[in-house]
Amino acid sequence: MIETPDYLSPWMSTQRWFAGKGRAPQLQIIGGFPLAGSSGDSDEAIIRVHLVLDSAENPLLYQVPLTERRYPLAGAEHALVATVTDEHGARYIYDGPHDPAFASALLRLILDEGDSVAEDGSGRVAAFGHRDLDHNTRILGSKVLGGEQSNTSIVFQTTDDSGAPAMPIICKLFRAIHDGENPDVVLTAVLGNAGTSVVPRTVGHLTGRWPDTGKLDGMATGHLAFAQEFLPGVEDAWRVALASSELGEDFSEGARTLGEATAEMHETLAEALPSRAATPADIAAVISSMRERFEVAAREVPALAVHREHLDGVYQRAQQSPWPSFQRIHGDFHLGQVLAVPGRGWVALDFEGEPMRSMRERSAPDSPLRDVAGMLRSFDYVAGSFALAHPGADAHEWASAARRAFLDGYIARSGRDLREHRALLDAFEIDKALYEAVYEARNRPAWLSIPVEAIERLVER
Questions:
Q1: CATH: 3.90.1200.10, 3.40.50.10140, 3.40.50.2000, 3.40.50.1000. Which one for 235-460?
Q2: What pTM was computed for the model?
Q3: pLDDT per residue over 317-368, tens digit each?
């Protein structure tokens, strides 16, 4: 068993990507691997990626890269994990992504596929790079993006062999890791390889192997990191739509083209990956999960319990209505997951799926109406945000026009008349609003009225 340092638990419990907020972690390092890299200065960092199991409540495995230095790293005070003193003097431990030595070593491992493998001495824990670029890339510098909840993303400035600026790269380090393929890696690559412009270009990814007592062979494999094109200086669709509502501008054209891009995304995924007719078992499972979601939401937000009888009717109508084929979908689709790229249009990001669903659920075929409903909810959230910022003002007409235009664009591009799925789409939208209600009750109580009022409107309809 690998000894877990005393500083790890208090530090991890304060990180945004750590899921066990409000309790003491029960941590065990199950393995790890070193990375060879240069920091570009005289204080060469020792780099090691730890795989840390938190066994409290629902066990979850985390990827925790740390660097060790003899001297403080200038400008990285916020990333200092601990200072350890022994007979050799002080050692400074840093959160790896904030250390240029780790960042560079991580990307090099992805770009140098076939030339290097990072592994521990036993060979039971290892990382393998997979590269999609067809030219050499030199790293000029890196920085960590702020604001992420569940992962850590590093942006790299690069040049080509001649020294000319090359495509910026963003590498997402998955903090919670799972056995199996991460949908973000798989679906982005599938869409990019199909030639569509609705996703950034894929650079490559890192896969890992580690011990897992829950597997028959005792080993698990999964994605550790994912690198893709970085699109600097652009805004996400949430900011664009919110600015439109603030100015009182009609967002119908933007919503319509977003509906077209969404339909293109679904069409490409259906063509490239297996899809199938929705079976009675599929339908029963989805409706059952909707009912379970309601019960969870009603416990968190007791005021929702009054809708139980009416929602039973909603779910019955949804179960009896026509269902489109099941296919791979985005899974957590909203305005914040889309970028507005000048000259290119809408570009979708973050195909990991809804965080509260298991990785197995996120990787399974699902109804594309789940994505459509998610975007419809997002337009409603713009209106709700506007109303919170401007008491007495109302942006529901703005949202209604945007919702209609989005559906019109989707219908025109896909040829699928969503009106025949109205009852089912309502059920998916209510299901998303119930998810939102739980989130807001736990994190932003002042925003709780947005999903609660939406549920009331949809139930009455």
A1: 3.90.1200.10
A2: 0.91
A3: 999 999 999 999 999 999 999 999 999 999 999 998 876 677 788 889 999 9
